[in-house]
Specification:
Length: 145
């Protein structure tokens, strides 16, 4: 359920103004910049199943109720990795016919500038290396050290 609602929440934040104004008559709006989204990984020898959500304000939501935040350096690295991978122009999936062998399956959903795109792949798939670099950068940014 988290995977389905997180992109909707992010989309709502992108188009919603917050507040009715203050006593001075000014309106407060949510300023959203950069990339937001989620990464779900499953599989591997341990049978891992994790979803990490990055909110537009830098808040990170993870497994077992984890809440954290990414810093400006991680945000910059992630933005660079998204750009380098041409993420929003990638195919929706890079999956081989045979999904065997205890590999990790990754589902990455990102939103930037009101555009949302999802890419699914698996370790050692015939996918652009920049996609795997993005996955590692995303996980490195959202997981606690």
């Amino acid at each position: 359920m988290k995977r389905a609602t997180a992109p909707l929440i992010v989309l709502a934040l992108l188009v919603t103004a917050c507040g009715d104004g203050d006593a001075g008559g000014t309106t407060t709006t949510t300023v959203v910049s950069g990339v937001s989204g989620s990464i779900h990984l499953s599989g591997g020898l341990e049978g891992r199943d994790e979803t990490w959500v990055l909110e537009s304000d830098g808040t990170v939501l993870g497994p077992d109720g984890y809440t954290g935040a990414i810093d400006a350096d991680d945000r910059a690295r992630l933005e660079s990795a998204v750009t380098a991978s041409d993420f929003f122009d990638l195919d929706a999936e890079y999956l081989p016919d045979d999904l065997c062998c205890d590999r990790f399956l990754y589902e990455v959903t990102l939103t930037r500038g009101g555009i949302t795109h999802t890419v699914t792949t698996i370790d050692a798939a015939d996918a652009p290396q920049a996609l795997f670099d993005l996955i590692q950068t995303f996980l490195g940014a959202v997981r606690p050290a």
